[in-house]
Amino acid sequence: MAAASGSGGPTPGVDRLIHEPARLAIMTNLYVVESANATYLLRQTGLTWGNLGSHLSKLEDAGYARITKGFKGKQPETTVSLTPLGRTALVEYRQRLMATLDRIAE
Amino acid sequence: MTGPMDLKLLERDAFRRFYEDGLMDVFFGLMLVTMSVGVVLTDWLENEAAGTIGMLGISVVLVTLLIAARRRLLRARLGEFRPGPERRRKITATRLVLVGSVLVGVVAFAVAAIAYAGEVPLASIDVLLPLLWFINAVVVMGAMAFYLDVPRFAFYGIVFGIAMPLLVWPDVLWGISVPVWIAFGVPGAVIVIIGLSMFRRFLQRYPPLPSGEDLLDGGR
């Protein structure tokens, strides 16, 4: 499970693993579909293959993403989906970030 | 990532992108052109069954080519995804509307066959069937536009819908003969041109992505 920032930080309680822009882009794009292949994520996020792989493995290690390796014909195919934990984490991230932004507004 | 985190908009735009290739548009246009070819074939062969079979044969080839081309093109340039539950419900609704449309078509064909056998006054059929055609086209393409979030399909529905009344009604009501290439061929060609220009733009906007599945393991 990813660490949240400390209570005295600028974004208290916000999941730092998701807070990184590239991972947030990956997670939001996965949230609105059931699953997607790596090419789809590459196009949607504009990341490079290496960056995408690095961020995906962090999300997988945190239990937020499920990565399945396989073949489509003779081509290797990587399919990614959010786990229930990842979906919940993104919803919580959004709520906490909104709450933080509300406090800043005040 | 820029802009507000609007998940519905994100999903809609991602899904809609898969219809920016213009190939569906080319297909719709060619279907209209094929219908005019079917009429020309019928006149040329002096056999309605042969004309209809020829038209259906061309349609089957078009559908096969469309599916193969889209699969190959979109997979390499946009990737693939399995939609979420809400989008899957919309796709199912679209399929149901398409099935309903085919059933309406079969009933219309049967009614026309009975009419031409002399059971129903031909004049009323020549007025009613084009009207049914119009409603069917507008409803089906309108449903596709709505459920698939591709508004231009509604415009194609109107173009499709108008073609048959434009061919039949002037002749029945005023004795004016409209050539089939004007009623079906010209609108079809216009849609094909729209599709081809979209296809060209799609190829420029979304070049094939470099293969690099092996690089995904680099982060481990």
Topology, number of strands of chain B: 1
Strand order of the largest sheet of chain A: 1-3-2
Quaternary structure classification: heterodimer
Q: Work out the helicity level of chain A.
A: 40-55%
Order of helices and strands of chain A: HHEHHEEH
Number of helical segments with 4 or more residues of chain B: 7
Shape descriptor of chain A reads elongated
Largest sheet of chain B: none
Give the largest interface: A-B, 35 and 32 residues
The structural class of chain A is alpha+beta
H/E series of chain B: HHHEHHHH
What's the gyration radius of chain A in Å? 15 Å
Major sheet summary line of chain A: 3 strands, antiparallel
The poorly predicted ranges of chain B are: none
Kindly state the mean pLDDT of chain A as a whole number?
88
How many H/I helices of chain A? 5
Our Rg estimate of chain B from Cα atoms comes to: 21 Å
Strand % of chain A is 15-25%
